[in-house]
Design a protein that fits this description.
By secondary structure, this protein is mainly alpha-helical. It has helices spanning about 1-15, 20-35, 40-50, 60-80, 85-100, 100-105, and strands at about 115-120, 125-130. The protein has a two-stranded antiparallel ribbon with strand order 1-2. A hairpin with a 5-residue loop joins strand 1 and strand 2. Helix 2 runs antiparallel to helix 3, helix 3 (about 40-50) packs antiparallel against helix 4 and helix 4 (about 60-80) runs antiparallel to helix 5. It is globular.
Length: about 130
């Protein structure tokens, strides 16, 4: 059934998280396809993004922008799964605190970054929009 498949896929994702992040992300996404309300898979993705900011490349602003992506995943986990809501909300707060500040956003060398999109290549293959603060 979907719940069992999701647990198996997440277990596989966990095995890959250090050796092949692309595979880890892929299996976490398969877990969500099997059970869309599986908050643990969203938390896994949040942790994967949040603990690998140096894989984002670019400057320090871009690397720290990964925390917004991690916070978004944690927010999704909180929204879909009450059993992980408290942990997800706590993680989302921690990630937002580590993301670029208002000053960083407005004083970026390329100008005000508010509302601009930052895309990450490699295994991440995701984009995030800089918050309008």
């Amino acid at each position: 059934d979907g719940a069992m498949k999701a647990k198996v896929y997440l277990g596989i994702a966990t095995m890959y998280q250090k050796s092949n992040k692309s595979q880890a992300r892929s299996y976490a996404e398969k877990a969500l396809q099997a059970r869309s309300s599986y908050g643990k898979a969203r938390l896994f993705l949040a942790g994967l993004y949040g603990s690998n900011i140096n894989d984002a490349g670019g400057d320090q602003f871009q690397r720290r922008a990964m925390y917004w992506l991690a916070a978004q995943e944690a927010d999704k986990a909180a929204a879909i799964d009450p059993s992980v809501r408290a942990k997800a909300n706590s993680l989302a707060s921690q990630y937002r605190a580590a993301a670029p500040s208002k000053t960083d956003i407005f004083n970026h060398p390329d100008g005000n970054m508010s509302g601009k999109q930052i895309c990450f290549g490699g295994w991440i293959s995701r984009c995030v929009t800089v918050p309008k603060l």
